[in-house]
Amino acid sequence: MVTLFNEGKLAPLFNTGTLLYPMTKAQYANVPLRPPQLFSHADQVTQWQTSVPDQAPLTGWGGRCADLLASVQPTAPISLTVTLSGANTFEVGNIVSEYSVSTTGAISMTLPASPTSRLQAMTNILALPYPNLQAKAYADVAQHAIATGAQLNTAIGPTSAASYWTPQFPGTVVQPTAGTSFTSNNLGPQLRMIARLIEAGHRAANASPVPGFGMKRQIFFCQVGGYDLHSGQTSGSTPASVVTGAHANLFAELSQCMYAFQRAMEKIGVNHSDPDFASRVTTFTSSDFGRTFPTNGVGSDQRLGQPSFDYGRGSARATDLRQVAGSRDQRSGRHQHWPMDPNHGGRSILRHAGFLVRHRQ
């Protein structure tokens, strides 16, 4: 990540968390002013994904953005919101529905031997006239799912080789302080598939020999776990061992996978003669919790304020985001560290997507 930071393509947004509005430590004691179920994993995940920390969840802010953008590309062949991690609140909208794919592509119908003839038979059955409205609706949905999956898998075909990307997405992550290596079987494959979908989205719908999606805007969601390290965070308590262990491995994976993803965006721009393409892609991280600085002896405990990382030249201006974090910390007191809300960092992302964003008082 340090390489991207030095290139002005990564910005750390410090001390973010789920609040109704900025508050001091003294105000925190007034329970009605706090979000409900504060320090609950599930509730803070939901609050991050809805950006509405004081109400029951209905839609996510990614889904609401997709609702507004749907009119820009009404003929988009796939949904504006695509998830690599199954159902999530972030991409739930009132109009647009999230489309779930795996790290190998669309989740297609699994058929026994002679798949072509069996698929054709299934397609013929679904195309029959159905007087029952419920049966007809089911057939329409199934036909649409089969057609969309086939179109998506064809569109991402040109980027199937791992060597297409330079550097390649890491299959093995090397922990820089310990020198050990381990398999990246979660974040790397998810980001690689997102890169393939973005490349297909940028390719014109009438491109030859393989058509793309011809989409101007796409919203993706992926997630990884393992950061809740109340124990086993480091290899030990000596100065040499505190920089190795589970926490160091997680950040090594994040760093190397995000580096490969940023370079993949730049490669798409080169391959499509669009030098500014990478600057129009913004990637950001969010987490339900940060970690306390003091140790509990074997790890660290939950802390409301956490760092968020924003990637992509254009919206991630490191100096701007550092100043934002500093001004908010000063308002709450130098040593109190009560965080700013997700809306503050999200506004930068939304402006980059073309939205007119006003501050909510």
What structural keywords apply?
single chain, 361 residues, alpha+beta, four-stranded mixed β-sheet, three-stranded antiparallel β-sheet, 10 helices, 36% helix
Low-confidence stretches: 322-340, 356-361
Major sheet description: 4 strands, mixed
Gross morphology is globular
What is the number of strand segments? 11
Distance between the termini: 34 Å
Output the radius of gyration: 22 Å
> So how many helices?
10
Strand order of the largest sheet: 4-3-2-7
**N-to-C SSE string, H for helix and E for strand:** HEHHHEEEHHEEHEHEEEEHH
Task: Provide the number of structural domains.
Answer: 1
The portion of residues forming beta strands comes to 5-15%
Helix-strand category? alpha+beta
Helix content: 25-40%
pLDDT average, as an integer? 82
